[in-house]
Amino acid sequence: MLQPRELPIFGQHDPKTVQQIEQVASHPKAVGAALMADGHLGYGMPIGGVVAYDNAVSPEGVGFDIGCGNKAVKTDRRFSEWVLDMPLAHAIDRIFDEVAFGVGQASNRFKDHPTFDDPRFELPFARSLKDTARRQLGSVGSGNHYVDLLVDNADCLWVGVHFGSRGLGHKLASKFMSDGDMMKPVTILDLDGYEGQDYWEYMGLAGAYASAGRDCVIDQVLSIIGCSPSYEVHNHHNFAWKEQHEGVGEVIVVRKGATPAFGLQEGFVGGSMGDDAVILRGASGDEARDLQRATFYSTIHGAGRVMSRTEAKGRFNRKTGAMKSPGRITSDMMTTWLDRKGVELRGGDLDEAPQAYRRLGDVLEAQGNTVAVTETLRPVAVAMAGRRDWNPYKD
What we know:
Helix content: 25-40%
CATH class: Alpha Beta
Number of helices: 11
Largest sheet: 8 strands, mixed
Strand content: 25-35%
CATH topology: tRNA-splicing ligase RtcB
Number of domains: 1
Structural class: alpha+beta
Radius of gyration: 20 Å
CATH superfamily: tRNA-splicing ligase RtcB
C-alpha cells in the first residue's frame, strides 16, 4: 500500500471545510491531499480540494458538475478598436440574448456536433441521456457560470467562459453519489471493480462533453462579436486524472474546484463578476516544486466564496418571489461595485456579487510561489443566468 503524505492547506478556512479535507485524506485509499486557498464547503469534499487515491476514484470528489472548467480565448482585436465597431452594451446584450443561460435551458444549436459520435454515448445509462445532451450542448447553466469579455494589459480583447457538463454530468454523477449530509464520508470506487470502471467511463464522457460545450459557446460568442481566436487556454477543474507523481507512482488525482498546474501548463482562473481574472501556470524553482509536489501540481480555480448563497441574497419563497429574510448584500452594493469597475452585467444575482467572494489577489498570494501569473484580464462585460434562475447546487 502507498504511504500517505502531508496535508498542505493554503489560506484561511472555516472549521467544517478543514474537517472535510481531513476526513477525505484519512481514507485508506488516499495517499495525499491538499486544500487550495479558494476552498469552501462542498458535498463530501470541499471545493478547492485535491486528493490522490491508490487506484480509486471518488464521485463526490469530482462533484455534480463533472468536467466543469474554464476556457479563455485571446482574440485578434484590440479592445479600443473593436468597441468602436460594436458598442460594449450592444455586444453583451446580444450574447445574453443568443447564448442559452439557466437551469435546464437548451441551446439546440449543436445537435450534430462530433462529440455525439463518442462510443461512450452507447453505454446504457448515457444512451438514455443523449437527447437531452444534444439539446443542451452550447448552453451555460446557472450559478457562477458565465461568459465574460475581458481586456489584457496590452489592450487585447479576450472571451472567457466557465461551466461544465450540464444535465448530462449531473445525471451521471447522481447515479454514483450518496445522498444526505454534506459532511458524510465520500464514496470510494475501486477502479478494478465494475462500478469504478463504469464511473470512470461516464466521467470521461461528461468531461469530453463539457469541453465541447465550452468550445461551442466560445465559437458562438466570437461569431457574435466578429472576432477570431489567436490563443486559447482550456482546463477542467472538476475531474479525476491518472497521473505519475514522484514518490507515489501512478495515482488517481481528483481535483474539485482545483486547476492542474504542471510546470508550463497554463490555466484560466476567474475572480468574480467585478474582479480581474488571470492566466497562470506552475512556477519554476526548487522551493516552488516542493509545494507543487505536495499539492500534486494543483492550484486554485477561482476566488472562492466567503458567503453562502442564502447568506448573500437572503431567503425567498420560490413560488411567490417574496423575501422571507434579507441577505447581507443589496442591489445597490453590487451595482456600485460594478459601476466603479466599469463592468456591464447582464443577468446575475446577489449571490454572485463580488462581495460574496474573496479577492483573487489575496487568494493568489495565499498560494505563495507555487504559481506564476502570465496574464491579468480585466472584465468589461459579464453575462450570467438571470435572477429568476434558481441554482440547485451548493458546490
